[in-house]
Amino acid sequence: MDLIARLRAGLPGEAILTDPDVTGSYANDMASFCEAGTPAVVVLPRTVEQVQHIMRTATELRVPVVPQGARTGLSGAANASDGCIVLSLVKMDRIIEINPVDRIAVVEPGVINAVLSRAVNEHGLYYPPDPSSWEECSIGGNIGTASGGLCCVKYGVTAEYVLGLDVVLADGRLLTCGRRTAKGVAGYDLTRLFVGSEGSLGIVVRAVLALKPEPPGQLALAAEFPSTAAACEAVCEIMARGHAPSLLELMDRTSIRAVNDMAQMGLPDSTEALLLAAFDTPEPAADLAAVGALCTAAGATEVVPAETAAESDLLLQARRLTLTALERVKSATMIDDVCVPRSRLAEMLDGTAAIAEKYDLTIGVCAHAGDGNTHPTVCFDAADPDESRRARESFDDIMALGLQLGGTITGEHGVGVLKKEWLARELGPVGVELQRGIKEVFDPLGILNPGKLF
Amino acid sequence: MDLIARLRAGLPGEAILTDPDVTGSYANDMASFCEAGTPAVVVLPRTVEQVQHIMRTATELRVPVVPQGARTGLSGAANASDGCIVLSLVKMDRIIEINPVDRIAVVEPGVINAVLSRAVNEHGLYYPPDPSSWEECSIGGNIGTASGGLCCVKYGVTAEYVLGLDVVLADGRLLTCGRRTAKGVAGYDLTRLFVGSEGSLGIVVRAVLALKPEPPGQLALAAEFPSTAAACEAVCEIMARGHAPSLLELMDRTSIRAVNDMAQMGLPDSTEALLLAAFDTPEPAADLAAVGALCTAAGATEVVPAETAAESDLLLQARRLTLTALERVKSATMIDDVCVPRSRLAEMLDGTAAIAEKYDLTIGVCAHAGDGNTHPTVCFDAADPDESRRARESFDDIMALGLQLGGTITGEHGVGVLKKEWLARELGPVGVELQRGIKEVFDPLGILNPGKLF
């Protein structure tokens, strides 16, 4: 009995896509330089039972399964492999419960991040994780890649908001792990193991998420610096003095110019680094004044605090446009995601500038500076083989630099296909052996998202 | 070659204790009703290399190893098994680094929680996890049991503060996992797997801990209620309205009377429940006023807000004395640790009172109410076999009730020996199978803390 017929036995017709023109459009997420195969079929289940049927079928027939959310990922973790079942969770998009007393939401994996955020806002609650793609990306994808965002400097990453999960295992059995409670230490933390596992250990079909009370609206400040080193010094001072900004972002000269070219924002061309800080505290103006003074002391040539939410939005717009602006510089971009201890941020930025010069490339950097998480974005002409090669090499140099500075190859984008050769380098042989051992416990046949991570 | 001689080859003489009178004193942690065996030897290493030597020796000779911190645990997780090596980490107690810019501390496992807390305070930093035993318990033990404390309602549990670990594996190899950075998603989260694993996966020899800026001193309020249900209604209202207390504790009538009897605190005997709330916000008085009003609306007969830190301490003293006071009621106590969704807290407390009546026992409850984490404390006469049996049965009924209310058998004390029969009931067969699989990956010979957890 063939794969499609077997799938049909437990799925409605419209949940099974086989037209190659259609299935081909499910081959990729948003990463560059990542191989992608041709799926045999795309399935769009709407229930847990349907997911179980798909996994039982895959196990019986030994067919690889590639789970997908909204495919906004940046590491190729959702890329199809040849002959695989693409298991898209986008139709499982119900918000099942929002509970203000327990401060939790229970959701299906296909819920869009922004949809959940707005829904909990209506109850005076806040779901912090806010990847740049928050209007499109799904909670299941956020869990799979352990996504971050702008708010992490104060509120942490997705992992910190996942309390419990329902997961369909490789063989189709259903596991419920974690909790609905604020605390719980019964046994090993399987929930956390699934977060960031890129669909390689099981299919998340339901999540219990922790929520926070909705904070006051944030107020932002922009500070212009004559060097990235001075901006990084300000970042270190702000954090060492105990401030709790809700956002602390840095843009380098290349990013600033790209944004200026695109949107005529009037940022002075002499600015080498722009620092954006925001506070959602009860007295944001006082916090901004204190942080503004630290910026000035570190050498800022201009400090512009917003006085209203609208002014704040205007200041933050430059940061939001960065990636789009950098994508216009050349025909292609590769976004890196190296995170270093924030005390090493200046070295990371200087080192990245040196790598750009070495390879004669344009590399714009924006950074979640408060977290030490940099996104060096290599701009290159994909039609030029030499420039493409240099782009790939510079990308590797950037990761090597990050590791050398005590950092990690990925702060929030994940490993996927893009960085799997680098994962072993970061983890070391003992770590890799243990991780492979864990993978085998959950997926002895190796059918879940093969070729990713390791 | 025998065990002791083999250990001597890599350890100084004073690090090896073999006198049965001495080794016998290492047999137990602080849990009641938990079997403990007789160790063959107690070792007190001072270096990572010595720990590696111990584990290599244990692997070669197939000798079980029981890791111990300060033995303040409440589940028997550190209890010796017959013929085991007790591996006490208390001599590895260096604070290696405190870094205010990166907001991290790097420590050895034997560092006492309060010692670390005070050391980081000197840098304007804060290590939140504060188990009741914080003056005695060690960071390694806190990591092993994923400890909580009073501050968790605002600041979360130990797990949230462990960024990276060095772990000596069962076979003596050294694993470094996790990070020094604020974010990082490279591979499966092994770090989190070790937290709460009760020494069953490896020996933590170094930890990178996240720190927070030191908050302002907290200001507390006490509110007296005519019923636990009214107090729980206040808890739900406080949390649903988005307040962020730094402490939200509840004491039931039995606890209040025990404290009154011991310390003559003058709490009215008509009080059925005492709620304690504190805020370490910039304007604690305003927060206390708002919370006081919610208490009054929920039926509080008296609300006493502190105006100074000294007054706050006085109010909180009753809570701090609870366990000691309950220990004086009868010759023995069993402390439970059931955590339920906070919306079910009232049912948990009423149900516990019914269980006390059913078994004709004194059960005092104090609770980290903001977390839904209750500590029903069964007071009984250990010399009376029938009362001891009823105590044990009531303890089980309390866990069953917690699970029935959507809770967990352990919010912060762990499983150890005490609750291992209950772990399977909470996890279910699929969860247990996966957890056992993980255990086998890390400890194929089963020498690490055998007989605990499963």
Automatic annotation (TrEMBL), chains A, B:
PROSITE patterns with a match to the protein in the record: FAD_PCMH
Keywords noted in UniProt: FAD, Flavoprotein, Oxidoreductase
SUPFAM superfamilies xref list: FAD-binding/transporter-associated domain-like, FAD-linked oxidases, C-terminal domain
Superkingdom of the organism of origin: Bacteria
Pfam families linked: FAD-oxidase_C, FAD_binding_4
This protein's record includes keyword Oxidoreductase: yes
GO molecular function annotations of the record: FAD binding; oxidoreductase activity
Keyword Oxidoreductase: yes
Entry cofactors: FAD
Ranges for domain FAD-binding PCMH-type: 35-214
Family note: Belongs to the FAD-binding oxidoreductase/transferase type 4 family.
Full protein name: FAD-binding protein
Organism (species): Streptomyces nigrescens
